[in-house]
Amino acid sequence: MKKDNKKENLVDKKGIDALEKISSSSYMIVLGNPLLNAKFDLTAFQMKIFYFLVLNTKQTAEGFSVTKVKVSEVSQFLKAKTSDYLYNLLEKESRKLMKKEIYLEDENSWKVANILSQIEYHKKEGAFSFLFPPMLSNYLLQLKKNFTYIDVRNLVSMDSIYAIRFYGFCKEFERFGKFQFTVNEMRKMFNLEKKYEMYGLFKQKVIIKAQEELIKNSDLIFTFKEVKEGKKVVSLQFKIEKNIAKSSQQLEIDDRNIVSILDDAPFEVIETITNPSALETIEEKLLEKLNAFSISQETISEWLEKYPVLQVELGVEYVLTEIKKDKSKIKNIPAYLSKIISSSQLMDRHQQVEEEKKVVKAMLKKNNEEKLHFEQQKQLQKEFLEEVYQEKRREVDKILNGHLTIYKKVLDVLAGSLYSSIYYDNYLTKVGTEISKETFLAFFRENTGFETIVITTLESFKDIDVFKEIQKKYKAQATKLGLSYY
């Protein structure tokens, strides 16, 4: 029975730790480990939406309630003409997310749930409402065991879904310093049973890509060792390490971090100017860049008249990058250039990346504001509690000084408690046989630990309402600060 109680207390403590952790930082979420190891197929942006929704979900609740995300919180960072695109982006990606399934399995059962069960757009409010399915509550709400803390600041700049997932593994197994998966287990978790079938390609596109992004973006990184059966790699042993370049103090994300979303783009983004003299300058620069490929000025002028300037610039930079990688792959460079420039795909991608950056900025601004408010509130609470404590101390000093025998009652309580007997013994060691109101009061005034335990003991006396007036005096202020006990 004692073992059971001990286990329950440990679980309760872990639950309390989880609550304290998510309340201590506006960037922190808590996820059940089965969720981190589940099988699902999301893009990096969809995963960020999911984490953003978890971040805005009350994880201390007993059940899910609708999470409302205002588009205005994002679009205030955008120009008016781009707000419609942001709405379309959120609508498109969240609707895709709603159709995505997550597969969870343990030794007893398996279960499948959609990641979202409901989406609603409020036209008058300019807000989306989301609802998680009840099945996910065991992995997101009131977690007391088998969970992992995630600081989302480590994830917002990652472009690869595999990097985001490997960061989750690193956090889950951080206390052990290592973890191991078979190649087949990873293929299953990442829904890659029929993709990257050659191990070398899987290693490059998944493992190495994740490793590089964690080094660049997160506070944890990993190295790995291949385990073979004959010549075949069957599993990987991962070692978790702290990223010296990215401590927790360095995770305040600024524009430079967010720009990293574009780091894998094979082109340079050139600022577009539309006045005539600027267009002539752009035409001259493009002609200079393309001179070696027999592209005439007339062709460039035709492109600039027919397509947006940025679309032409992006197309040229993309093709030049491809030529630099391997010129032999492009049989007809002028024809390839015309084909790429005529397509709007690079423009669409560029615009989507820009919108994703702004979504992330909006999320971070909101989180920073919440964090600042939380820290200010904590400081006010600290100052308030110190003021109340000093008031109590003065009141106790007055009571002890004016009462002949109350100190004896306090000593009896201290002597009879295993926890507080150490304070009783310290007092006796100090005063020896000179137990009196005067020595008690002197020890109270010079010893902070003794002072605190005496105040706590007097608070517990039901027949002596020592602090009634103090509580009455500070009640309104305590309520305003969210303190139910002071």
TrEMBL record:
What is the species listed in this Swiss-Prot or TrEMBL entry? Arcicella rosea
Q: Which residues form a coiled coil?
A: 350-395
Query: Which InterPro entries does the UniProt record give?
Result: Initiator_Rep_WH1 (IPR000525), WH-like_DNA-bd_sf (IPR036388), WH_DNA-bd_sf (IPR036390)
Q: Which UniProt keywords apply?
A: Coiled coil, Kinase, Transferase
Q: In which family does this protein belong, per the annotation?
A: Belongs to the initiator RepB protein family.
Highest taxon above the source species: Bacteria
- Where is the Initiator Rep protein WH1 domain positioned along the sequence? 29-171
Tell me what this protein is called: Adenylate kinase
Which GO MF terms does the UniProt record name?
Answer: DNA-directed DNA polymerase activity; kinase activity
Q: Which GO BP terms, alphabetically?
A: DNA replication initiation
